[in-house]
From TrEMBL:
One of its GO terms (cellular component) is plasma membrane. It is an enzyme of class 3 (hydrolase). The lineage of its organism: Bacteria, Pseudomonadati, Pseudomonadota, Alphaproteobacteria, Hyphomicrobiales. This is cyclic-guanylate-specific phosphodiesterase. The keyword Signal does not apply. The chain crosses the membrane at residues 1-17. The keyword Transmembrane helix applies. Residues 23-275 form the EAL domain.
Length: 277
């Protein structure tokens, strides 16, 4: 009876564990993914429009499920931001960049990597310690590191100004991401010591479409130039878009017309062949 009792207990515990796994909340699943380090990074080449050469990459996180499927960041980053899990995820992204791109970046000093930061990463200045420590150890020079923050991430303007100023003192560049999708004004932009502005894909999509939005991109470009900011256009999918951007004095872009985000090994090949040409 005793033996049967303990057997039954084991079966019940096993069943409960199985059921609770199945019913795990999205947050519970994300927490397990963090613990198991299930995040991988893909790299999208950043191209100098005038030469067509690759000058670096944006690091874009994906959640790789145990079955190998990749989950897009917009499906889990919001939850990660709300719950505070974004911090360990950011750390895992930075670790991957160091490990995967260290040798390439020690060899090609002109390359840079752009890293996405959430409001929570940026507000406290925590990013600076993390980046300095984790990428410095792999031989990255600080001027090879670009920090990207969205308008939302820079909402607390005093904190943002402090973090950006400190970042630039250390030699990092700071870009405002998805510019134009929030509420920021020229005045807001002017008050931050930024290096670069990234034009959101929605504006690039409107190029040559004769819609209300197509006038906006010219305006954003003028604004960035008047503040001496570098400009990176994202989501470039056609030759016409690339030509428009080049004609309007935009320096850099990224998009499927040139290359999609790819695993580190492919990006390393891409850079080596791009630089040999
Ligand atoms: P984002 O920073 O605006 O990144 C650009 C997004 O546009 C990426 O989507 C990229 O794959 C996509 N993209 C680039 N070129 C093209 C194109 O020509 N056509 C189309 N249709 N799409 C293009 P992805 O990788 O799905 O990332 C989505 C967002 O998730 C990012 O938007 C960023 O806000 C966030 N994210 C990605 N990685 C990280 C990360 O490590 N940390 C944080 N906090 N956020 C991240
Ligand atoms: Ca970005
Ligand atoms: Ca962006
Ligand atoms: Ca975007």
């Amino acid at each position: 009876f005793l033996a049967f009792g303990s057997f039954a207990t084991i079966v019940i515990i096993a069943l409960v564990i199985r059921m609770s796994r199945k019913r795990l909340s999205p947050l519970g699943e994300l927490a397990i993914a963090v613990r198991k380090r299930e995040f991988v990074v893909h790299y999208q080449p950043i191209i100098e429009l005038s030469s067509g050469l690759c000058v670096g990459a944006e690091a874009l996180v994906r959640w790789q499920r145990p079955d190998g499927t990749l989950v897009r960041p917009d499906l889990f980053i919001p939850l990660a931001e709300q719950s505070g899990l974004i911090r360990p995820i950011t750390d895992q992204v930075i670790d991957a960049i160091g490990r995967e791109l260290g040798p390439l970046f020690r060899k090609h000093r002109s390359l840079h990597v752009a890293i996405n930061f959430a409001a929570d990463d940026f507000k406290t200045g925590r990013v600076l310690e993390t980046v300095g420590h984790r990428l410095g150890n792999h031989g990255f020079a600080n001027d090879q590191i670009w920090l990207e923050a969205t308008e939302r991430g820079l909402m607390d303007i005093d904190e943002a100004r402090k973090t950006i100023a400190e970042a630039r003192t250390r030699g990092y560049s700071v870009a405002i991401d998805d510019f134009g999708t929030g509420y920021s004004s020229l005045q807001y932009l002017q008050s931050l010591p930024l290096d670069a502005l990234k034009i959101d894909k929605s504006f690039v999509d409107a190029i040559n479409r004769q819609t209300a939005t197509s006038a906006v991109i010219a305006h954003i470009i003028e604004m960035a130039k008047s503040l001496s900011l570098s400009i990176i256009a994202e989501g470039v999918e056609t030759r016409e878009q690339a030509e428009y951007l080049l004609d309007h004095g935009v320096e850099f872009c990224q998009g499927w017309f040139y290359a999609k985000p790819m695993p580190a090994a492919d990006f390393i090949d891409y850079v080596e062949t791009s630089l040999q040409r």
